[in-house]
Write a structure and sequence with these properties.
Helices cover 24% and strands 31% of the residues. By secondary structure, the protein is an alpha+beta fold. The chain binds adenosine-5'-triphosphate. Keywords: ATP-binding, Nucleotide-binding, Transport.
């Protein structure tokens, strides 16, 4: 098993000033699960297609181990791909589909037959083995597609391009669990493309966040959530994401929030004079507390979410989460406090992609 390394890889579909993917360096370490996370149009598929060899990059090089494969086509990269739509031979049984990828290369090796049996076990495909593939449901077909990638012991990585898109919501978790279980059994490099931050965070060892063709940050789910390096990452990850307060006039250690008349004194000198303030919704406290900034304002919206009530204070662009039984309604006037120690400070000197 070898690393996949990109050096200055970038792509423009038209001309060099209009990057679908801005040049960047990265090493996908062997046996690690990655998620490429970002909104529609951020460049995830472009990067995946460059890695698989379906797309030739405008600039940069790709190495698999020490071999420069930049100009090699898909067949010479030995990378398996699972797409949004399952790819199975409908006229074959499930078992025939699973054996097919290894028959051409390793016909005589008992070891690979054994691997097929293990794949069947980990994906729990035994009950369907002798069924014609065309009779399977969409999620079963997607498991077979995944199985077809996993049976090949020689691949350098498996690319998963939004493989859960066509799977029913009730089945998604089951398929995700099986993908993770299969990676534990066969520790191959996996690169999952998704715009669903929950999916990325629950699947990956390392998440790579993109926006507008820029790789903004990579790190463990814990790092991405707790130490975002960019306001976009902070807002995109979390349900709901981090609140970003746009302070645009500074006087010494005072920050005037642009969307209100509040002037806050920042005791934390590292803030300097140019900053954005970020805070997670569940860190905002109800009521006045001396250890933070207090805002008194009108509740514009109350929404029941999976983790409690989401309260929106539009005048400050703030959302907070409170327990379901908190008696707060739209139109109420409430005090909320943003504790100093929970505030993330983003310097305005950094050029953030979305600001
Ligand atoms: P999605 O989640 O919607 O698939 P994505 O993050 O995978 O989006 P890409 O498909 O890589 O994003 O697209 C990145 C940018 O490149 C977008 O602005 C898109 O419109 C543009 N783009 C993608 N494919 C082509 C193409 N074949 N020709 C021209 N522009 C393209």
């Amino acid at each position: 098993m070898v690393d996949i390394r990109v050096e200055g890889i970038g792509h423009s579909y038209s001309n060099d000033s209009d990057w679908a993917l801005r040049p960047f360096h990265f090493t996908f370490k062997s046996g690690v699960k990655y998620a490429l996370l970002g909104p529609s149009g951020c460049g995830k598929t472009t990067l995946l297609n460059i890695l698989s060899g379906l797309l030739s990059p405008s600039t940069g090089k790709i190495f698999i181990g020490d071999a420069d494969v930049t100009h090699k086509n898909c067949r010479h990269r030995n990378i398996a791909q699972v797409f949004q739509f399952p790819v199975v031979y409908e006229s074959m049984t499930v078992k025939q589909n699973l054996i097919f990828p290894i028959r051409r290369t390793f016909r005589k090796l008992a070891r690979d037959r054994q691997r097929v049996d293990e794949v069947i076990k980990v994906l729990e495909l035994e009950p369907f083995l002798n069924l014609q593939s065309k009779s399977l449901s969409g999620f079963q077909k997607q498991l077979v597609s995944l199985g077809r990638a996993l049976v090949r012991s020689d691949v350098n990585g498996i690319l998963l391009d939004e493989p859960l898109t066509m799977v029913d919501p009730q089945r998604k978790q089951d398929v995700r669990r099986k993908i993770v279980a299969s990676q534990e059994k066969f520790p191959q490099t996996m690169i999952l493309v998704t715009h669903d931050q929950k999916e990325a965070m629950s699947f990956a060892d390392e998440v790579i966040v993109l926006n507008q063709g820029v790789v903004l940050q990579s790190g463990s789910p814990h790092e991405i959530y707790n130490s975002p390096q960019d306001p976009f990452v902070a807002q995109f990850v979390g349900s709901p994401g981090m609140n970003i307060l746009n302070g645009d006039i500074e006087q010494g250690n005072k920050v005037l929030l642009s969307d209100s008349k509040d002037i806050w004194s920042l005791s934390n000198s590292k803030a300097g004079s140019d900053c954005y303030l970020g805070i997670r919704p569940h860190h905002i406290k109800l009521g006045h507390h001396p250890d933070g900034f207090t805002i008194r304002n009108r509740v514009d919206d109350v929404e029941l979410g999976s983790h409690g009530k989401a309260i929106r204070i539009a005048s400050h662009g703030i959302q907070l989460l409170v327990p379901y039984d908190e008696p707060i309604n739209q139109g109420d006037s409430i005090d909320v406090t943003l504790p100093f120690e929970k505030i993330t400070i983003f310097s305005k000197k950094v050029q953030y992609s979305n600001l």
